[in-house]
Amino acid sequence: MTTPVITVMHGAVGYDGRPVLRDISLTVATGEVVAVLGANGSGKSTLIRTILGLVPLSAGSITLFDRPLRRFRQWHRIGYVPQRLGAGSGVPATVREVVASGRLARRGILRPPGAADRAAVAAALASVGLTDRADDPVATLSGGQQQRTLIARALAGQPELLVLDEPTAGVDAASQEAFAAALRGFVDGGGTVLLVAHELGPLRPVITRAIVIHQGGIAHDGAVPEPAGHHAAPDHDHVHPHGPDEHAGLWS
Ligand SMILES: Nc1ncnc2c1ncn2[C@@H]1O[C@H](COP(=O)(O)OP(=O)(O)OP(=O)(O)O)[C@@H](O)[C@H]1O
Where is the composition biased (Basic and acidic residues) (predicted)? Predict the structure, then answer.
């Protein structure tokens, strides 16, 4: 059996006493690419932020790389791209500087960057297709390119687990394709991915498993649901993880 990277057992989360997630149990193993799907406000971001220790559990337990979350310190093993950070808005940093900041957890703030740091930054820039923009201020990039910069920053840290919150939301088609290719390269190198998505688009072939959050619980954990409109396909197995009240096209 492959090593579990993430284990959540009977996890419950709420804000100000208002429950958002209840009795969540899941395991993500090395090499999996897991998409967390669900309607707006269903708790997808809350789930991944809880896994990263950013939101406290009200019940249950979490382990990362086989260590209880409260004792986990090896954060360099995890790259996190939060939802819509707005990289560089008002900040005159170049793309390369933002990506290089992803090395800090690895090299420590006081040690100057070495050849390994520069190589990791160059590889991360290339993997998202931004080599030719490396010395431009981030603020001059499109929203999709800024999002790619943040993904490159996470990749530059050479993490084993990449956690991404809606990496392709509002991102142009070229950036979505570039991101799918970068993700494929990361996974081929042995990486594990947990991402929140609204629409899978070009990511669909890279995803190995889908978890659907509905009414605070896991409504489906398994095959990636077909896009709406594929129900008549001959190989459709009539598994309907989504309730009738959810948006059509949620998985398109
Ligand atoms: N920091 C917070 N304080 C209080 N309530 C919050 C906080 N963050 C999220 N919520 C609430 O928790 C619920 C789940 O939010 P969450 O952001 O996890 O959903 P989501 O599935 O990621 O949504 P979306 O698809 O819109 O990003 C929502 O009702 C939201 O309003």
Answer: 228-252
Helices assigned H by DSSP within 55-114: 95-100, 104-107
Domain 4-222 class?
alpha beta
Centroid of ligand 1 to alpha carbon of 114 (angstroms): 40
pLDDT tens-digit profile of 54-102? 899 999 999 999 999 999 989 889 998 887 655 445 557 899 988 988 8
Domain residues of the chain, as ranges?
Answer: 4-222
Asked whether the beta carbons of 196 and 221 are under 8 A apart, the reply is: no
Contact 128, 178 (CB under 8 A): yes
Q: Model's pTM, two decimal places?
A: 0.84
Contact present, 163 and 51 (Cβ < 8 Å): yes
In angstroms, what is the span from residue 46 Cα to ligand 1's centroid?
6
Show the ligand 1 pocket: residues with CB < 6 angstroms.
15, 20, 38, 40-46
DSSP string, 146-165: HHHHHHHHHHHT--SEEEEE
